[in-house]
Design a protein that fits this description.
Helix 3 packs parallel to helix 4. This protein starts with a strand and ends in a 5-residue tail after the last strand. The strands form 6 sheets. Strands 1, 4, 5, 6, 8, 9, 10, 11 and 12 form a 9-stranded mixed sheet that branches. The protein has 455 residues and is of the alpha+beta class.
Length: 455
């Protein structure tokens, strides 16, 4: 089953600068404006390694990847980044606000042995897109490092791993800061060999579910195969046979999943009234008058959540859940609708064969198959090209984008439960892209995992 190990992480040396000025969110949520802001924030901000700028004159010898590699080497030589004195596991806490509450989510940063999905040890839940993997592979080849951790989940009802780490961590963290969003970050470095071995043994019988970072995990697998071929397929594992992950317990009280909504564009000849008529075959349609300035949209989201509420025990492993499939649809000009599937019992007949009940019962699967694919012609090929569908978590921004004509439609979803995510992964299936958003994102720049031996 899952094999973890400590590693000698590279961390910013004390005195380089405030950590809040050195770290970033993951690369995939950083737009051009934010990227420029991180460049200006500090000359040693991790953005230069993880997600460097592209310039008009870039070529094979001078580009975002070669510059990242040069900076990575220079920063190590200058002592900007220094290695841990001995292999470590890291206890990582994020304190944040969600749903009107202040929450704390705990995780363990470690190296996890790379395993192909078919072995059933590390399980994915989302589809990936080729161009994002090509970008990450080019960076990994140039720098030979993991700059940001993959977000993984595991099941530990007794909280055994967390308790072991906390008993050894003691009081004050080794580092602590608050980021630009008001989220607090705390890190404890655990180097005690006895505790590390106890954690390794406790994790040995468990599966790891990828929550976020599927592109990076698949890239790490490809890179591992490349390195092994370069070195003549050595018998023992090398540093490149592991990938840095932050593992969070499914039972952690701070585990939060938010929805990711869909924006539609480039559908030729779209007639909204005709579309609504077709939707009505399987969905009840209720008009929700949208107030000027979107003032009552929060009420709509609450109503959407109420319509799609789950019944059953939502704790991990407690058994199947059921719920009504409801979506929001905004067509612009104040035309907002609540769509609810008429006959839940018809779902197995309506959904494509060859999928488990867990996959067929996902809101995102129902939306994609019954509306996006059947009625709008946005299938797998269109999603892979990213020509017709964009993903967003900005609700008011989605409404505005439709009103301004940037997009034709916006579909709003309820968040999936973690139980749904793991059920799909355990069945060997994948959810559509951008089906989950575990909030908040892990920070990039706390710890770097070198995929080479540090002298």
């Amino acid at each position: 089953m899952a094999e973890i190990k400590p590693f000698r992480g590279l961390r910013y040396a004390p005195g380089v600068g405030p950590l809040a000025d050195l770290v970033t969110p993951p690369y995939d949520v950083i737009d051009a404006k934010a990227q420029d802001g991180y460049y200006q924030r500090h000359p040693y901000n991790i953005i230069r390694l993880e997600y460097g700028k592209v310039y008009p004159g870039d070529d094979e010898s001078n580009n975002r990847y070669t510059r990242a590699a040069a900076d990575f080497t220079a920063w190590r030589e200058k002592g900007v980044l220094v290695p841990e004195e001995s292999p470590a596991l890291y206890l990582y806490e994020q304190e944040f606000s969600a749903g009107g509450k202040r929450l704390v989510r705990s995780g363990m940063i470690c190296a996890v042995r790379l395993e192909p999905y078919e072995k059933g040890v590390v399980l994915p839940h989302e589809e990936t897109l080729p161009k994002h993997k090509a970008d990450r592979l080019a960076l990994m080849r140039a720098c030979r490092a993991n700059f940001s951790p993959i977000f993984g989940l595991y099941t530990d009802a007794e909280m055994a791993v967390d308790n072991l780490l906390r008993q050894r961590a003691g009081g004050s963290p080794d580092l602590e800061f608050t980021d630009e969003n008001g989220h607090a970050h705390r890190l404890w470095v655990i180097t005690d060999p006895t505790v590390i071995e106890q954690v390794r043994q406790t994790m040995a019988g468990r599966l790891v579910f990828i929550a976020d970072g599927h592109h990076r995990y698949e890239t790490a697998l490809a890179y591992s195969r490349e390195r092994r071929q370069e070195e003549g397929n050595p018998a023992g594992p090398g540093p490149y046979d592991y990938v840095m992950m932050t593992l969070v317990n499914l039972y952690d009280p701070g585990l939060v999943v938010l929805p990711t909504h869909r924006l539609v564009r480039n559908v030729e000849g779209l007639d909204v009234d005709e579309l609504l008529g077709k939707i009505q075959e399987h969905f009840e349609i209720e008009v929700f008058p949208l107030a000027p300035g979107y003032g009552n949209f929060a009420g709509f989201i609450k109503e959407l959540a109420a319509r799609g509420g789950f019944t059953g025990d939502a704790r991990p492993g407690a058994g199947p859940l059921s719920h009504r499939h409801s979506f929001g649809l905004y067509c612009g000009g104040g035309r907002l609708y609540l769509l609810t599937l008429r006959d839940e019992g018809a779902l197995p007949r309506l959904m494509p064969d060859g999928h488990s009940a867990a996959w067929q019962g996902l809101d995102v699967s129902v939306l994609h198959h019954l509306i996006l694919e059947r009625l709008l012609g946005i299938g797998g090929a269109e999603r892979a090209r990213e020509s017709h569908l964009t993903y967003t978590r900005e609700e008011a921004g989605a409404l505005k984008a439709v009103d301004e004509g940037e997009y034709q439609l916006a579909f709003f979803l309820n968040p999936p439960l973690v139980e749904e995510v793991t059920a799909v992964a355990a069945s060997g299936e994948k959810m559509p892209q951008k089906s989950t958003f575990f909030y908040p994102k892990l920070i990039t720049g706390l710890v770097i995992n070198p995929l080479f031996n540090i002298d």
